[in-house]
Amino acid sequence: MLSNLAQGVQAFTSNVYLLKGQRTVLIDPGSNFDVVERIRDRVDGLDAVVLTHTHPDHVGNLAAVKDAFDADAWGYDASVDGVDHAIEDDESVRLGDHEYVALHTPGHKDDHLCFYSEEAGVLLAGDLVFQNGSFGRTDLEEGNREMLIRSIDRLVDRIDEDLEEMHTGHGPSVTVDPYDHVELSAEMARQV
């Protein structure tokens, strides 16, 4: 079961997804709000914190969450402050009740990961792609438009056309034809 703990937060933050199940995991702890209280309202503990990438709006609450739940953080680059363990490209990770493949998708940030479960029909897209053909910024440090386009193309090739849900780092989740939104992002990234 997946829920967005940043729902309704007015502060600048990323979406924060709690996946409950065999392995209770928090995806991106967000920033600028009390996420610890929101987690405690729903679960007794966390098995891990998993990061799509380490921009401040996604990891501002990381230290507080790790301290409150004695949970390690997993991300692409373990040399980044706060990341305890590395997740390799194409590595399989259990999030909630399903196995997800971690896809290294740089372009927005060098350590960016997307997580895809074919079994569940779910994509955790981070800041790579969003609804209606939007895509991650490339004007920040480590941003690279050509690399972003290659990452989106890789995602299009990897995910199933029957994808059921796409949960993004900002904005609403997409539950109607999410594959089409990813394809449109690939087109739009080439036009800007």
From TrEMBL:
Keyword Isomerase: no
Family annotation (SUPFAM superfamilies): Metallo-hydrolase/oxidoreductase (SSF56281)
Pfam families to which the protein is assigned, alphabetical: Lactamase_B
Cofactor annotation: Zn(2+)
GO molecular function, one term: metal ion binding
Keywords: Hydrolase, Metal-binding, Zinc
UniProt keyword Calcium, yes or no: no
Gene3D superfamilies membership: Ribonuclease Z/Hydroxyacylglutathione hydrolase-like
Location of the Metallo-beta-lactamase domain: 13-170
Protein's name in the database: MBL fold metallo-hydrolase
Species classification: Archaea, Methanobacteriati, Methanobacteriota, Stenosarchaea group, Halobacteria
